[in-house]
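Write out the 3D structure for:
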Amino acid sequence: MTATIDFRAMAGAPFDPISATLRSMFGTDDLPGLTRGLLVHDAAGWMPAASLADGTHLPQLLDAAARRWRGSPHAAAALAWKSYSYWLTLPAVLGWASARRVPLLRADDVLVHFEDHRPLLTLGYRRTIDVAVLPSDPLAISGLPEVVVVPDEAALLSAFRTSLLDEHVNPMLDAIHGEVRLGARTLMGSVASGVAYGLLRAADWLPGSTADNITTLLTALELDDLIDLENGPGGQINVQRKTCCLAFTLPKPKLCSGCVIKPS
């Protein structure tokens, strides 16, 4: 009798390393900005992020932000983007750092809803979202249709950049610019700081040097000129932004950690 090897079972679920790292970071699978388990199994009530990027539902996001923060339209938009981009990039950032598995964040494959009013919004992925992996990953021989095998680390980072920036972030920034006056550098600064903070917060559960991981990702995304990494008094790494999220303009002003504006 010939034994059949189930390569899918050996590989595990594509998002297992990401879910495990998120669970370690937050102590729960119920996260404020991501659906449980990351994948959306019933898309009723969800909208594709492409409907934000093409402007169709972007006013819904901006209106929700204005109600939440009660700031000027451009400040509310900047803070909405800061929240959105953090939760958008976090699973892919952790997937790359933990296992070199990167969900490809095309706007059609990311889903959004506004039904839970505790966070501003909740993000999740279509069940069919592609995941890029290296040839050495067990997923590479799993036969799963959503697995995209790339030849090396450079190609993996390139796939990350293309899906995140070219196929999601840049079109969405164009749509935001059509609604409010906000510079791309301000908004991209939040993407850069979100990547850095995500890796710092997960540092205890990730392999390698945190500073090296941050530098590698931000260089690949061409965002490395938007933050500096500084050594704190206790030896910890601090993120120093070079742009502002505009939280200081709110009715109750806030200066974030690492803000480019220094308290007087």
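The chain is about 45% helix and 15% strand.
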